[in-house]
Structure formats: C-alpha cells, structure tokens
C-alpha cells in the first residue's frame, strides 16, 4: 500500500508562497474595509477587523492548512469548521459596518475551499456568494442604480475561487500520483538490482566451483596419484620414483598456472598462444602421461576433428576445454578405460564435442544425481548457460560417450 505524502512533502515552497499570498490579501482587504468604513462606525469596524485578523492568525497556527495533503480528509467540525464559521461571522459583522467588507469575501472563499475540502467548501462558498449578492442588492444598490455589478461580482469571485483552488488541488493530486509512481518504479529498480546482484554472485560462485573442479581439483588428484606411486617406488626403483616426482612437479606447475587464470578470470593456460585444437591435444597428452606414471595401465587419448577448424568465441572455447578436462579426468579416475577419443566437429551453426571411452560404462540417469560428484552437474551448468545440449550415453561394461553441442551464432566466430 502506498502511503500518503507526509506533511513535509506537501509543504512545498510553492504551497507556502500561495498561503502567504492569501494572508497578505486578506490582511490588506480587511484594512481597506476598516479605512473605508462610514463616519461614526470606524472604531466598530476597526474592532471587527482586528477580531477577524486575530481569529485568522490563531486559526492559522492551529489548522496549518499549508501542511495538509489534498488527499487527507478535511472539514472536521473542530477545528476546521469552527475556525471558518468564526471568520465568516466576523466577516458578516464587518460587511454590515463597511461596504468595502464585500471584498473580503474573495480570500474568505479561497480559505473555505482549502480548509473544508471540495464538498463542504463548495457549500460554504455558495452561501458566502449568496450573502454577498443579497447584501449588494438589499443594502448597497439605490433606486435606478444598475444591479448587475452586485450580482456578477460575488458570483465571478466564487467561480474564480472554485477554479483556482480546485484546479491547483487537481494539479497537486496529479503530481503526487506521478511521484508515487516514480517512487514505486525506483523501489522496483532497487529490488531488481539486488536480485541481479544476487544472481550474478550465484553465477560467479558456480563458475568458480566449476573452474576449481576442472582445474585445481584435477591437478591435485593427479599429483596425489603420482606421489603415491613415487612413494611405492622409493627404495626399489629410484629412477622411476624421480620420474614420478618430476611429473608431479609438472602437474603442480600446470595447476598453479590454472589457479592464476581462475583468479584473474583470464583465458585458461592451455589456450595461451595456441588454438582450441592444440589445447585439447595438450590436455589429452597430459592425461595419458599421468596415467602412465601411476602404473594403473596405459591410457591412449586421441584427438580428432571433423569439418574445417575455425576460431570460436572465447566463452565457447573455454567451456569446451573445461568440459574435456573434466570428462578425461572422469575417464582416468573412474572408467578403468584403456582408450579415449576426443572428437571436435565444426558445423555452420554449431560445434560438437564428443568424448568416448572403452571403460566400465555408467548409468546416464544416475550420473551426477547424487553423491559427491560435481563433474557432470558442472558440465550441464556450463552447457545450459551457453544454450547448448549435453547428452550422456553408456551401458555397464560398454563404455561411455559424452556429447556436447553448442550453438555458434552468425558473426560470433572470432
């Protein structure tokens, strides 16, 4: 629910200026009425005028019309109606004593509309106009004297008062409505900005988790396997132990380079100064070398291309490289395979990566659905962000085939 404007908001400089103008107009016209009073009633007119101004000043201090919103309820019996009624009675006394008191009717009408609101204020203005017309016709106009001025003057004054006050209030309502709309839009934009920041933080966390899994976790796992094999070779085959330690150091250097790239959010180290195809072959060679060092049996990894190789957008090349790293790590650690094949197929509007092995196979429906594994869910997340499709095929004992197809929109090739 939208709250009504506060008094501080409605008491604008323009509003205060109008109220001050009304104060001055009323004071000047009361002084004129007192000065132009007929001889013999001057002191009584001055007393009535002074009382009217005193009541006006006292009411202004209590009612505070300039601080009210046009949307709030107005015309309460106390103090609104009581104040306006007191001013009207004193005006009638001044009008009875001085013909010039008729001019005070105009600021009085403006005040009645603003204090009493559009319903009771209109009634009060109508009654004031009737009194002014009656006073002019019954006591001011002489025989044969034109009466139109005594009728048109108060009626035009009432019409102007109605037009001015109601028009200003309609303008203020429209301005307040627009301000509420602007405030609501501002709040909505703030909420959207917060939601966007939260989404960006979530996406960045997911990206970092994928990058850590595909780089640091794989490197640390390879180092752990190499060092375990080196520990077994210590004392029995010193040459092999030194070779395994050297491979572990090389894997540690590669992991350190990848860690720096993850922190700096730059292109992966394997893509530095080479093509995507060269990076895939580097990853394949590193995977095969890591298996050879552990003594778990050789793993032959080959890389093929179909179609004409071409540069791809950097996000696609990074995703294809990371997915290949994660897939080959799974083959190395879990599949028990002796052969893996990486195939990159270039088509006019897409690129397809296929990683196949001859290992123990798996159940695609269960892959990544539970346990601690993060590899398959991370791949799916990468592919989904790029608008691609990931398919996983395999049967127990018959190997596994991972297929990823990513769209390449026209003009995105780099």
Structural write-up:
The chain has 414 residues and is α+β, with helices and mostly antiparallel strands. Helices cover 65% and strands 9% of the residues. Strands 1-2-3-5-4 form a 5-stranded mixed sheet, covered by helices on one side. Strand 4 and strand 5 form a beta hairpin.
Helical amount: 55-70%
* End-to-end CA span: 52 Å
Average pLDDT taken over every residue: 78
What topology, given as strand order, has the largest sheet?
1-2-3-5-4
In percent, how much strand structure appears in the residues? 5-15%
Protein structure class: alpha+beta
What is the number of helical segments per DSSP (H or I, 4+ residues)?
10
Radius of gyration over C-alpha positions, nearest whole angstrom:
45 Å
**Any low-confidence stretches, pLDDT <50, length ≥5?**
1-11
**Total DSSP E strands:** 5
- Tell me about the biggest sheet? 5 strands, mixed
- Please state the overall shape, judged from the principal axes of the Cα atoms: rod-shaped
Order of helices and strands: HHHHHHHHEHEEHEE
Q: How would you summarize the topology of this molecule?
A:
Elements: H1 7-10, H2 13-35, H3 42-63, H4 77-97, H5 105-140, H6 148-233, H7 238-264, H8 276-294, E1 300-306, H9 314-335, E2 339-347, E3 350-357, H10 375-385, E4 389-394, E5 400-407
Parallel strand pairs: 1-2
Antiparallel strand pairs: 2-3, 3-5, 4-5
Helix pairs in contact: 2-3, 3-4, 4-5, 5-6, 6-7, 6-9, 6-10, 7-8, 8-9, 9-10
Quickly list its features.
disordered N terminus, rod-shaped, five-stranded mixed sheet, 414 residues
């Amino acid at each position: 629910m939208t709250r009504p404007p506060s008094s501080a908001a409605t008491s604008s400089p323009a509003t205060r200026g109008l109220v001050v103008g009304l104060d001055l107009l009323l004071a000047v016209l009361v002084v004129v009425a007192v000065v132009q009073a007929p001889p013999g009633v001057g002191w009584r007119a001055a007393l009535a005028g002074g009382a009217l101004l005193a009541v006006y000043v006292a009411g202004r201090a209590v009612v505070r019309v300039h601080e009210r919103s046009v949307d709030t309820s107005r015309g309460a019996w106390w103090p609104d109606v009581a104040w306006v009624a007191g001013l009207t009675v004193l005006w009638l006394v001044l009008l009875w004593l001085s013909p010039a008191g008729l001019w005070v009717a105009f600021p009085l009408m403006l005040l009645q509309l603003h204090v009493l609101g559009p319903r009771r204020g209109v009634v009060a203005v109508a009654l004031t106009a009737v009194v002014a017309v009656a006073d002019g016709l019954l006591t001011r106009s002489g025989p044969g004297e034109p009466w139109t001025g005594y009728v048109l003057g108060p009626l035009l004054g009432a019409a102007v008062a109605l037009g001015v006050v109601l028009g200003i209030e309609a303008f203020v309502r429209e301005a307040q409505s627009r301000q509420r709309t602007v405030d609501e839009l501002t709040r909505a934009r703030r909420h959207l900005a917060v939601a966007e920041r939260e989404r960006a933080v979530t996406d960045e966390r997911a990206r970092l988790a994928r990058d850590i899994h595909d780089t640091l976790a794989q490197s640390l796992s390879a180092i752990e396997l190499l060092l375990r094999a080196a520990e077994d070779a210590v004392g029995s085959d010193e040459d092999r132990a030194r070779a395994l330690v050297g491979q572990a150091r090389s894997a540690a250097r590669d992991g350190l380079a990848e860690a720096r790239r993850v922190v700096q959010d730059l292109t992966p180290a394997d893509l530095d100064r080479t093509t995507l195809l060269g990076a895939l072959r580097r990853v394949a060679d590193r995977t095969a070398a890591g298996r050879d060092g552990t003594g778990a049996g050789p793993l032959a990894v080959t890389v093929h291309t179909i179609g004409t190789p071409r540069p791809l957008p950097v996000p696609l090349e990074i995703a294809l490289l990371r997915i290949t790293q994660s897939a080959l790590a799974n083959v190395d650690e879990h599949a028990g395979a002796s052969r893996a094949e990486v195939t990159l197929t270039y088509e006019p509007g897409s690129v397809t990566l296929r990683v196949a092995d001859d290992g123990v196979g798996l159940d695609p429906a269960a892959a990544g659905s539970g346990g601690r594994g993060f590899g398959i869910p991370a791949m799916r997340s990468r592919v989904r962000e790029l608008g691609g499709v990931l398919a996983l095929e395999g049967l127990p004992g018959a190997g596994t085939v991972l297929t990823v197809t990513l769209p390449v929109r026209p003009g995105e090739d780099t």
